[in-house]
Write a structure and sequence with these properties.
It contains nine helices and six strands. The chain is α/β, with parallel strands linked by helices. About 30% of the residues are buried.
Length: about 210
């Protein structure tokens, strides 16, 4: 049956084996994005990178080699850094993030507000995107505290000069709050549910004409 990422990602991280899964997903995502780009211009793809992987000295070169191998422009790929753990090797992690950004990759801080030292990471690393966690976005129209957090996060992203993304949009009311706050992008079941690559191209054609 269907197995959610929470069932296998943490054990892989703890065992130090998350790298193999990461590179597999990067290669598949890069190939898919290149294919999408042949159908529609301006499409990018986002891939989660575990914070525990970012201390590997050669990581930036390895990721760049993957996009190069499929002839994908790095600026078409956004690397989402999850906050499941504290930064271990701070020097190597920041070096990888800077090198990836210099190569053109977008950098997103994922699940903002729920992880470890979010503000510190925003201050230190060259992130281009802030993803507001779904625990704040979902039903934010009915929860004044969540709405305040969402609106303040969008405002902070704007002041920092990075793109804001609200994840977990499940209703028109959630969408309206993000729109009124000036959030740049939204993600969630209200827009679309997970789908295969073929289904995505059909969805894209239907929605954009």
């Amino acid at each position: 049956g269907l197995i959610g990422p929470n069932a296998f990602v943490p054990p892989l991280e703890q065992a130090g084996e998350i790298g193999e899964l990461t590179f597999l997903m990067l290669k598949q995502a890069a190939l898919a994005c290149r294919h999408w780009g042949q159908q529609r211009s301006g499409i990018s793809v986002s891939v989660n990178i575990s914070l525990t992987s970012l201390g590997a000295p050669a990581l930036a070169d390895q990721i760049a080699a993957i996009t190069s191998s499929v002839d994908l422009d790095p600026n078409k790929m956004i690397l989402e850094v999850t906050e499941t753990a504290a930064i271990g090797n701070v020097g190597a992690t920041l070096e990888n993030l800077v090198r990836l950004r210099m190569r053109g990759f977008g950098l997103s801080i994922d699940d903002y507000g729920t992880g470890f030292a979010s503000l510190q990471q925003l201050q230190l690393a060259p992130f281009t995107e802030l993803k507001i966690d779904k625990s704040f976005v979902t039903n934010c129209a009915e929860n004044p505290s969540s709405r305040t957090i969402v609106e303040s996060s969008v405002q902070m992203a704007r002041q920092l000069g990075v793109r804001s993304v609200g994840e977990g949009v499940e209703t028109q009311a959630d969408w309206n709050i993000l729109r009124d706050a000036g959030c740049d992008m939204a993600q969630g079941f209200f827009i679309a549910r997970p789908m295969t690559e073929v289904q995505f191209l059909t969805f894209l054609t239907r929605e954009t004409g």
